[in-house]
Amino acid sequence: MLPTEVASPFDDPDYLFEAWWPGARAIASCERGVLRLQVAGLADAGASFPELATLSAQLAEDGTMLDGTLLILDPDGRPDADLLRQRLAGAGRPGRPAYVASDLLWAGGQSVRLNAFRVRRAWLEAILEPGDRATVGRGYRGDGTLLAEALAPLGVDGISARHLGARYRSGPAGDAWLRAPIVPAEPRPRPTLALILRLPLGE
Amino acid sequence: MARSLWRGAIQFGLVTIPVKLYLATESTSIGFNMLHADCLNRIQMKIYCPHHDEVVPRSDTVRGYEWSKGRYVVMTDAEMDAVPLKTVRAIEIEMFVDAKREAHEAQFVKQAYYLEPDPMGAKAFELLRQVLAEQGKTAICKIVLKDREQLAALNPYDNTMLLTTLHWPDEVRSHTELNLPTAEITVKPAERAMAEQLIASMTGEFSPADYRDDYRAALMSVIEAKVGGEEPVPAQRVEPTKIGDLMAALEASVAAAREARRSAAAPAADAAVPTSETADADQRPPRRRRSA
């Protein structure tokens, strides 16, 4: 499923809205207790994220495939895209990895893709026990603009909207999954000097 | 407050204001004693002469100043007392300077003292304090403390005055040896604007009460536990960050955004709108705005 870009956040009770955390889209599959993490361009990123191997223990059913976001949290608990890039590039293991699950493709060795997202999501919440490293993302039904307002001060630049009645589609998702950008509110309450350091000062 | 540690007088021109000095700060760091690991008795420091290979009593020592490598000149107590010092028992005001400029020049401070006037000097003390405050001036003065003449700044502070001893100019090291950015670095306007925005967003009122020495508190709690015969609790390690914390931060932010909307909508509710449900419906943005 590939998201469709829309112009701005909106409100619609048929959609479940979530934060578009600055991380990497990742399909996590657990079979016989073994976790595989599929990240765009990489067959198995699991080796770079050994801390997430415990994810399979949080799942009530084996033969499960999750759609979600791979994050690296900095010491303040905030997702850091730079640290994630370093990890994916194999440059050490900075930060603390986390996985936020949003959707369910397989459960108990069966595909659940033909079910409506409403059903898949409830199923996901039923089988994934929230832990320190992996959890189901917080979803807000209908309240897209509210969520966008709440996320702007956290420095998150987009929201995800999944249609509650849509089945899981391969390829472009059409109306089933939308991504809306958040215009950052100003001023941001917690900027860091790292932002300055990242600027190409002095050429 | 504790005993005053100095009595003397502020002097400027023909005015003399008798005052007492109190330490304005105290060191709260935790001191340890050196014990012998076997018997836990206090270790004694003996003064030892390697030439005679013997322990020397303190009374058999003299002050020596090493004026060149291995060569000393001996200063007796009598010679020390005879050193001419004008500023004995007095805070001699040398000049008054603009407080803002002085703050820039006198950043190398040693120690702060509160001043307390003797009853007979109270009026002159208060007069000096008020005029300094109104004119935004700082008095630069000299004072002899602990046998040493010290440079100090006198500033109004609340309903008293604060005497801050300063380092002499020749005690302040030069910073020219540091590797500092030179003027060649060019900064683009956009970079400057971003830095300015970051600084502006973190600008606030400095309130010292918000800061404390966490290390000292943690160390003290371990010591108190040991004194009380308890097994010291290992210091709390900073919890590794959890994904749940991020979700909690998100929820708090959503709650805050919801609250902000509710209070923004509240005045409209006074107008003839019967329920908040309909008020919400009126203010809802368009259902869907799709890109072309």
Number of strands of chain B: 11
Percentage of β-strand residues of chain A: 25-35%
In whole angstroms, how far apart are the ends of chain A?
40 Å
Largest sheet of chain B: 7 strands, mixed, barrel
User: How far do the termini of chain B sit from each other?
Assistant: 75 Å
Instruction: Work out the radius of gyration of chain A.
Output: 17 Å
With helices defined by DSSP (H or I, 4 residues minimum), what is the helix count of chain B?
Answer: 7
The greatest inter-chain interface is formed by: A-B, 51 and 38 residues
Quaternary organization: heterodimer
Structural class, judged by helices and strands of chain A?
alpha+beta
The low-confidence runs of chain B, each spanning 5 or more residues with pLDDT under 50, are 268-286
SSE string of chain B, helices as H and strands as E? EEEEEEHEHEHEEEHHHH
Measured by DSSP, the beta-strand proportion of chain B falls in 25-35%
Low-confidence stretches of chain A: 188-203
Tally the helices of chain A. 5
How does this structure look, described?
The complex is a heterodimer of chains A (203) and B (292). Chain A contains five helices and eleven strands, in the order ββββαβαββαββαββα. In chain A, strand 3 and strand 4 form a beta hairpin. In chain A, the strands form two sheets. In chain A, strands 3, 4, 5, 6, 7 and 8 form a six-stranded mixed sheet that branches. Chain A has a five-stranded mixed sheet with strand order 1-11-10-2-9. The longest helix of chain A is centred in the middle third of the chain and has 11 residues. Helix content of chain A is 18%, strand content 32%. With 203 residues, chain A is α+β, with helices and mostly antiparallel strands. Chain B is of the alpha+beta class. Chain B is 30% helix and 26% strand. In chain B, the strands form three sheets. Chain B has a seven-stranded mixed barrel. Chain B has a two-stranded antiparallel sheet with strand order 3-4. In chain B, strand 9 and strand 10 form a beta hairpin. Chain B is extended and about 85 Å long. About 7% of the residues of chain B have low confidence. Chains A and B meet through strand 6, helix 4 and helix 5 of A and helix 4 and helix 6 of B.
